[in-house]
Amino acid sequence: MARRREDSEPVTPAELARVDRMRRDFVANVSHELKTPATSLQLLAESLLEVLDDDPGQARFFAEQLKSETGRMNQLISDLLDLARLESEEGVPDPRPVDVRSVLMVVLARMRQVARGKEIDLRWKRYGEASRYIIEGDETQITSMFTNLVDNAVKYTPPGGVVEVIGDAAGGGISVSVSDTGIGIPRDKLSRLFERFYRVDKARSKETGGTGLGLSIVRHIAEKHGGRVSVQSAPGEGSTFTVHPPRR
Ligand code: ADP
């Protein structure tokens, strides 16, 4: 873990420049990411107006596109807000006992329908007694962390594949892994995966409605809970993301 800076330690000009560069990059990235859906919304609204009186079929098509593009933009904004909140808070503000096992069951129940729609076999295994699945943390954040991982696994796995969630509280602490038999990730891309807005395949991510912020949110939440997240993957074979939270 990085050493915390003492209040009396001076901030070096190089460090200030680095923070400023990061801030500028972030603002540029956010503007770019918002500009794309905003342009689509405008074009779709113009197209809708053009056909509104004469072609109800086309008008419906544009209205539906408008709806889904608005949904994407909303998702992006709420991911950005989540990330901003995670970055501004020190640790977990109000930790309470959370049952990781029941969180996982809720996440799986919510994802089951999407998985079924893609003919993906969503499985769940658990090792260790139920009582060992309790950690101190924020239930909403932990739910969001696992939802992101399972959602990605389903998203990046072609129909007929398998997604398996394994909880292991049998050893020291609890680890949860989400494995899929999906498209996998090239080795040279693994190190950048948890950066904001990073996508391995931009076109595919856009197609599946991704914001490129999910894994960044996952990493923040894992670290806030004193844990970490790791990934193993091979193109064409699948990926395994593992969250290692601390002991109770
Ligand atoms: P996105 O919203 O694009 O899914 P994420 O931050 O959740 O953004 O993930 C970043 C990128 O990592 C994705 O765009 C995708 O390329 C890759 N990725 C994440 N999870 C998986 C997975 N289970 N299998 C293959 N690639 C993945």
Describe what you observe in this structure.
Helix content is 50%, strand content 17%. The chain has six helices and seven strands, in the order ααβαββαββααββ. The strands form two sheets. It has a five-stranded mixed beta sheet, with helices on one face. Strands 1-3 form a two-stranded antiparallel ribbon. A hairpin with a 6-residue loop joins strand 4 and strand 5. It is globular and about 65 Å long. The N terminus is likely disordered. It binds adenosine-5'-diphosphate. The site of adenosine-5'-diphosphate (ADP) has 23 residues, from helix 4 and helix 6.
Characteristic terms for this protein:
disordered N terminus; two-stranded antiparallel sheet; Heat Shock Protein 90; 248 residues; 5-stranded mixed sheet; Helix Hairpins; 7 strands
Report the sheet-strand fraction.
15-25%
Order of helices and strands: HHEHEEHEEHHEE
- The CATH topology assignment of the largest domain is Heat Shock Protein 90
- What level of helicity do the residues show? 40-55%
CATH superfamily of the largest domain: Histidine kinase-like ATPase, C-terminal domain
Count of domains: 2
Q: Which overall shape is indicated by the principal axes computed on the Cα atoms?
A: globular
Low-confidence stretches: 1-6
The number of helical runs is 6
Structural class: alpha+beta
CATH class membership of the largest domain: Alpha Beta
Hetero groups bound?
adenosine-5'-diphosphate
The tally of beta strands, per DSSP, is 7
CATH architectural group of the largest domain: 2-Layer Sandwich
Read across the widest sheet, the strand sequence of neighbours is 2-4-5-7-6
Query: Residue-averaged pLDDT, rounded?
Result: 90
